[in-house]
Structure formats: structure tokens, C-alpha cells
């Protein structure tokens, strides 16, 4: 079946083919380990030359989504994990629910003064002391996201130790008196990976990352956590729940 290319969209033809392949993989048309159609077959489907297809495949190979086995063809190296965004968003539950193994670690902490942005998100005074906790999250041994979270220090003085003990924000906040929390707001954008996250996420310079900024609140609707997460764009597919 032929697939139409929008040549007036201002998006390179090879990029449109790459995005089509990504979508097919995300939807399960091509699963992990599956062999892709040949370059000739894809070229015929889009009515383009093989060089254009080869460039799309090379881009996705560079992102780690595909792998080329000499003499055998091109295969799906990994399938993006669905990551639901809803009122209750918990990394470990999301990963475990897809028969994958979650893990991670705390990679940094600090105390800093709240700037206007974070003070507004946490409904506190500008300049008030914040706890900062930085984490790396891993799925089946592959790093997928780096997160920086801020909390009001006066309210949660023992949070760093609680997180170090439990490895879970849910459990750490429970130890600090917050029995449960929910997601009030999520904002999603994208940017190129920065130099520090290149090593942590094990992706190449110039690759895109999803930026997910979120605010969690306690049962009284009081903010408890503001987080800025950087997600490897080829490893996670955000699913917005309604």
C-alpha cells in the first residue's frame, strides 16, 4: 500500500519516512526484533528513491531505534515504552505494569533558594530554601529519564534521607507525612539533550529529549513536588490519560 508524502509540509521527505517508521514501531506493527521491509519495498510504498529511505533508516539507527545486521537486513532494536500521564503517575508502577524491570538511583542532592518559577509552582516565598533531588531512572538496564525534583525544605527536612533509604518518592513522602499525592499539572516540550544528560542517558549529542515539567499535590491540594524530567525521546512514548 502506498503512503502519501506531504511535499509541501516543510519537513524533509526522509524525516517524514523516519517518523512513519517510529509510529509503526510505537503502534506495534514492527515489534522489537522484527525485520523491516527492504529499502526497495519502503521506497515503493512512498514513491521515493532508496537513498531517501536509507537516510531515514540511518537516522533511526543513530538514535538506537533500529539496528542493521550486515547481509540480513534492518531490525527493530527497541520499542518505545508507553508512559501514561494522569492523576496518578508512578514510575515503578508504570514500568512494572508492562512486564519490565524498573530501577534507578539518586545521582545528586542540594539545597538552594527558590527562584520565581519554582516558588510559584510550589506556592512558597521566593528565596525560601529548597531541597533538590536528582534521579536517574532505568528500564531493563537501559536509562530512560533523568529527573530534578524540588521540595520545600522546611516542610520535608528528612526527605533526602528518606529517599536514599527507600528509592521511591512515594515512600519517602509517606515517611515525611504525605500519605498520597496526585498530579495537578504536566507540561511537555522538547529540546536537544545537554552535555550532562548525554552521558547519563547514553544518547548521542544532538538527539532530542522530551521535557516533562510536573507539579504533584497532597490530598489537600497543597503542592509537594515540582519536577523537571528529561526523557530519551526514542525510548518513551507519552500517553495522556483523560
TrEMBL record:
SUPFAM superfamilies: Chorismate lyase-like, Winged helix' DNA-binding domain. The keyword Oxidoreductase does not apply. Keywords: DNA-binding, Transcription, Transcription regulation. Pfam families: GntR, UTRA. The keyword Zinc does not apply. Residues 11-79 form the HTH gntR-type domain. This is Phosphonate metabolism transcriptional regulator PhnF. The gene is phnF.
Amino acid at each position: 500500500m502506498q503512503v502519501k508524502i506531504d511535499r509541501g509540509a516543510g519537513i524533509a521527505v526522509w524525516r517524514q519516512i523516519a517518523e512513519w517508521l517510529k509510529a509503526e514501531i510505537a503502534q506495534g506493527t514492527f515489534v522489537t526484533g522484527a525485520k523491516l521491509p527492504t529499502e526497495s519495498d519502503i521506497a515503493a510504498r512512498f514513491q521515493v528513491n532508496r537513498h531517501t529511505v536509507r537516510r531515514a533508516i540511518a537516522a533511526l539507527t543513530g538514535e538506537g531505534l533500529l539496528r542493521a545486521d550486515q547481509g540480513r537486513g534492518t531490525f527493530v532494536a527497541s520499542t518505545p515504552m508507553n508512559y501514561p500521564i494522569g492523576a496518578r503517575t508512578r514510575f515503578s508502577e508504570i514500568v512494572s505494569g508492562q512486564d519490565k524491570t524498573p530501577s534507578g538511583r539518586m545521582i545528586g542532592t542540594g539545597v538552594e533558594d527558590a527562584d520565581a518559577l519554582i516558588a510559584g509552582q510550589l506556592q512558597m516565598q521566593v528565596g525560601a530554601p529548597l531541597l533538590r533531588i536528582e534521579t536517574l531512572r532505568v528500564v531493563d538496564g537501559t536509562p530512560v529519564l533523568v529527573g530534578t525534583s524540588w521540595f520545600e525544605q522546611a516542610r520535608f527536612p528528612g526527605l533526602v534521607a528518606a529517599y536514599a533509604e527507600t528509592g521511591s518518592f512515594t515512600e519517602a513522602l509517606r515517611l515525611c507525612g504525605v500519605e498520597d499525592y496526585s498530579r495537578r499539572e504536566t507540561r511537555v516540550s522538547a529540546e536537544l539533550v545537554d552535555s550532562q544528560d548525554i552521558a547519563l542517558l547514553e544518547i548521542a549529542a544532538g538527539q532530542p529529549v522530551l521535557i516533562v515539567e510536573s507539579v504533584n499535590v497532597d490530598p489537600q491540594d497543597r503542592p509537594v513536588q515540582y519536577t523537571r524530567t528529561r526523557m530519551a525521546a526514542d525510548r518513551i512514548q507519552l500517553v495522556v490519560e483523560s
